[in-house]
Amino acid sequence: MTAAGIAGLATVLPTGTAAAAPGRCGDHAWCDPGRSPDERAAMVLRELTLDEKISLLGGDDLAGAAGSGHTGTGHGVERLGIPPVYYGDGPVGSRQGSGTSMPSGVSLAASFDPELATTYGATVANEVRCKGNDVVFGPTVDVLRVPTSGRAFEGFGEDPYLSSRIGVGWAAGAHSEGVMVCVKHFAAYTQEGVLGVVGSRMLYNAVVDERTLREIYLPPFEAAVREAGVGAVMGSYNRVGGQYACEHQWLLNDLLKHEWGFTGYTIADYAAMHSTGNSLANGMDFEPWPALVYSPAAIRTALATGQAATSDVDEHARRILRTMFSHGIFDRPAYPNDDSQIDKKAHLDTAGHVAEQGMTLLRNDGLLPLDPAALRGKTIAVIGEAADKFVQGGGSSSTTPYSFVSPLQGIQRRGAEAGITVVHEPGTTPGAAAEAARNADIAVVVVSDMMSEFLDKPNLDLDSGIAQFPPPALGNPLADQDAIIEAALDANANTVVVLETGGPVATPWRYRTRALLEAWYPGANAGTALACVLFGDVDPGGRLPLTFPDSDDDVPTAGDIARYPGKGLDVHFTEGVFVGYRHYDAEEIEPAFPFGHGLSYTSFAYSDLRVSGEKVSVVVTNTGNRTGHAVPQLYLGLPSPREDVPQPPRQLKGFAKLTLDPGRSASVEFTLTDPALSYWDELAGGWTVAAGEYRVHVGESSRDIRGDGSFTVAAERRVR
């Protein structure tokens, strides 16, 4: 029952793995683990030829990765004991062959539980390691700007503080498995493009002010570097201020490596590099696949024509070597590629637990939890094609599960235990859905959307993404799901709607539902988790890490093509810091469901809110008759120091995940530190705490505030 307070979690640094068996370094002076990583890297660097240094900067060529199973390879230098480095995709599970398909990143974020994020990161990294990889590409910490973004499911939602806390926990778990973390995608990567073309991620230029970058899009990366000690940062496809992110002097050198003190190395996303000379000179260390821009010939040409210097090559090679030493890659045996090492059952159980904790109950008038005793001898109709499918996002987070429990299978198993008849109606027509619902005592309608890397959804409609997979010419594989929901609601008031979506969707029928559950993309153990939540074996643990808009017209970028998908190649971030719930709160727009919202099967009271010095405390009491999860959230309203520095009404600055038995109370304390109170002052070029009144709000969502307070800062001060 600890709060993820404003000061953040304890710093977690990679420990590497103490190898019982000999490492791969050989008999060289730099193989002494008693020397510092910097010293060891410098010693190796002095022995490398220029060609060998160049070879360290590029991974596989176009054909090199084929058949290897790894996502990429960094080639070593055998004569000097420099081992190869193997890379594996892993934001939601290993993509190398089959793996445990974990719930989506947004599902993990909905748990509001950094400790669970640590378990998640360790589970993914364990499988990545057991498949012979040294580095995991993950987590994805891009803050959600456009709710229809194709990769909304992969990240941790619309709030930088929540994304930071979940990302740090994820990285700590991965490091505990001896796997190096490559956090992605740096920076201001917020869209794939309409049909993958208009506003394409490969071309768009983020026109964004420094305050917005510093306060919204950069904090999760800064936390990953400063707190989690990640070994690598992946550059994104897009441009920022006219310069491609993978050759961006300010982002890669000035900010990341110098200001933040990042000692690892930068990695380009696949096919994200453009200019060999600019990349070498401006801070890009490694191109994984295909190594075209950093091919030996391209680098030699850039050096010969004066586009870059040999000192640039030395610096990139030094960073790669130093990071390999600091993460123990030289000092341990190679990880074997052997799936038999993986505890598949334990990982499936973990996937189910994460899904339970992420499932977010949006509406409930008492229909849930279902009572097995009352339903004995009765019928549940499970409606929808999605109920019997493995639903996941597309692109680099798509996985092939070792095994899969569908929602239908989970409900059938639970029903069989309780003597309940469970029937399935795919619901290919509204008429069929209505008939199935009418003939059942309870109807459970399971619907899904389709989100993917490479293209954004055109709108928030459930079916808008699905219509693109396969292309429209081949037909829509699923029926009109809104019509299916409406038909079931018409036929049976006791209808539960379950959403398996990658992000927010339109819910025009929501006021007619007795129960609405957001299950996200729930992973390999979807059905087990869903049945446990529906029947009340566990309390739904999720809270929304993003806002569900009432309509497409309400989103921050609506009605302005310059904001999205962009005017020409420029995408103008003119909404500034008013992203997600900050926008809805500032504009007093009522969302369908607000950020932080999520219901429990019990009820909670908040009392004794105290604001004293650097502390905010509140007592949370379970006032119901069931054990349940509470997620008290701390929001601050900062004073506006000048007219040109508007502040959102509320910003998330702390939260806690509590499990309380009936009648039990817990006191939650949040620490107010300068970083939580500060804003980026572009005039001063630094973080500043403004003078004035700071409003304190504690509640169950950005709109459900249970207690208010305030304190005053007498004089402005620079903090860093």
TrEMBL record:
Xref: Pfam families: Fn3-like (PF14310), Glyco_hydro_3 (PF00933), Glyco_hydro_3_C (PF01915)
Coiled coil ranges: none
Keyword Hydrolase listed: yes
Matching InterPro entries: Cellulose_deg_GH3, Fn3-like, GH, Glyco_hydro_3_C, Glyco_hydro_3_C_sf, Glyco_hydro_3_N, Glyco_hydro_3_N_sf, Ig-like_fold
Keywords, alphabetical: Hydrolase
Record-annotated Fibronectin type III-like domain positions: 630-702
GO molecular function: hydrolase activity
Domain of life: Bacteria
Sequence similarity: Belongs to the glycosyl hydrolase 3 family.
Protein name per its UniProtKB record: Glycoside hydrolase family 3 C-terminal domain-containing protein
Origin species: Saccharopolyspora endophytica
